[in-house]
Amino acid sequence: MVPARTAALAALLSLLGTAGCRHMRFPQVSSDYREYAYVTNGGAGTVTVLDLVNFRPDHTLRVGDNPTGVAVNPVRNEAYVVNTRSGTVSVIDAGTNAVVSTIPVHKTPYSIAVDSKGERAYVANSGANTVSVLDLPGRRELTTVGTGEQPGMARISSDGRSLVISNRGSGSISLYSIGQAPAPHFRATFDGCPQATDVAILPDSSKAFVACSGSDEVLAIALAAEPGSWPAKQDPSTLQDHLLARLHVGKTPVHLAVKPDGGELFVSNFGSNSISEISTFTNEVGSTYPIGSQPAEGVVSADNASLWVSNFGAESVSLYSIEEGRMSNAVHTGPQPDAMALSPGRPVLLVADSKSGDVAVIRTRDTNGPELLTMLPAGAQPNAIAIKAFHVH
After folding, report:
1. How many CB atoms within 10 Å of residue 326?
2. What phi-psi label fits residue 244: left (phi over 0), alpha (psi between -120 and 50 degrees) or beta?
3. CA distances (Å), 359 to each of 54, 194, 255, 280, 351, in order?
4. Measured between alpha carbons, how far is 58 from 49 in angstroms, rounded to an integer?
5. Scanning 27, 57, 64, 170, which has its CA 20 to 30 A from the CA of 149?
6. Residues 244-282, buried b or exposed e (16+ Cβ, 10 A)?
């Protein structure tokens, strides 16, 4: 057993001794409330299901080879796992935590986005230069549409009108109109974004931001307004997608985190150990701050006050106070922390430790500040987390 894994297990055993009293400090939930985290283990071909009501492992599910992306359905009690080497999507029933269907897609799928109605999903097939459109109730592929080279991230605007795809191989962004028709309608392409990776869309669906990991830039793109809407009536030019700005941030921007109110965007600059703060109103970079070693991912709290950043090279998560404009705390995790998720119903942050194969559970609200609550075992190379909360009937 490798030393890092031994240390992680030792920490788990130590923390389990106090988990009982700490658990009592959490708000009580009703007996019919369920909350599960789905953690994709890229090196194991499995998904670890964590029970976030009782903070314990629930199931380990065999899926396809090299699972990467994962998303939950906002309407149905289901989760969807992209199996990159298998070219499939696994459907998990959250009520039973069992794999109930496998949907074939195309070569090297990487990410998945689910629409707000819970009826359609869009899978970026990196090895096929396409996007698959899935009928989720029917559990089948409806059609595909071409993209640029090596599409990576798929994102849907909150109004359900726009699909944004980052094409890492061609350094471009593809935009589509989506709606009732099975096939997305191509609208525009924007080039000049080397190794385009993460995409963030504002809550009001007006703009998309794209991280160009092969440079030090983030692109700001105005998304076409709906015909007949107030913006379109005021300014007909808003009916067209257009580039707003090329924003210089730190080296190797890899992840974008938007505040829930949409006012600011935070960029994790993996190559310069910093985060950059962007005003989404003016499309300007406000400041760049040192944060930790190789920041990989960020997530903003629901109250817009705090930014959590996983430091891949430092075995820690940094807490940045947005209101004060400074790093206010750091919490130790396992080796190579990467993907994160904030619980919608519990005051905890989950952090996947990609090297040690576990998940750090961090209490986000406490009189003594944030603290590591426990470490839960996952599988080899955990790389993504999605959380589903619901009430049973």
Report:
1. 9
2. alpha
3. 15, 32, 20, 32, 5
4. 5
5. 64
6. ebebebbebbbbbbbbeebebbbbbbbebbbbbbbebee
* pTM for this predicted structure: 0.92
Q: What is the reported pLDDT for 284?
A: 97
% pLDDT > 90, the chain: 85
Contact 114, 74 (CB under 8 A): yes
State how far the Cα of 198 lies from the Cα of 257, in Å rounded to an integer: 10
The residue whose two tokens read 């300014």 is 235
Q: How many CA atoms lie within 13 A of 90 on its CB side?
A: 27
Tell me the chain's radius of gyration from C-alpha atoms. 20
Q: Where are the beta strands (DSSP E) in 157-269?
A: 162-167, 172-177, 185-190, 196-201, 207-212, 217-222, 242-248, 253-258, 264-269
Q: Which amino acid is present at 388?
A: K
Mean pLDDT on 131-158: 97
Residue 18 DSSP class:
H
CA-to-CA distance for 311 and 316, rounded, in angstroms? Answer: 6
Q: What is the model's pLDDT at position 232? A: 63
Tokens of 119: 């009826």
What's the CA gap between 185 and 321, in Å, rounded?
41
Taking alpha carbons only, the member of 302, 32, 236, 258 closest to residue 155 is: 258
Closest-CA residue to 311 (of 327, 291, 329): 291
Task: Note whether 376 and 56 are within 8 A (CB).
Answer: yes
Q: Could you give the 3-state DSSP secondary structure of residue 232?
A: helix
Instruction: Give the amino acid at 276.
Output: S
- 235-244's contacts with Cβ under 8 Å and 24+ in sequence apart are 240/188, 241/175, 241/187, 241/188, 241/190, 243/190, 243/219, 244/207, 244/220, 244/283
Distance CA 52, CA 251 (A): 36
Element holding 68 (H helix, E strand)? strand 67-72
Confidence tier at 233 by pLDDT (50, 70, 90): low
Pairing between β-strand 88-93 and β-strand 98-104 as defined by DSSP bridges:
antiparallel
Distance in angstroms (rounded) separating the CA atoms of residues 86 and 348: 33
The rounded distance, in Å, linking the Cα atoms of 259 and 269 is 17
Reduced to 3 states (helix: H, G, I; strand: E, B; else coil), residue 1 is coil
Residue 226 is predicted with a pLDDT of 78
- The model's pLDDT over 335-359, given as tens digits with 9 standing for 90+, comes to 999 999 999 999 999 999 999 999 9
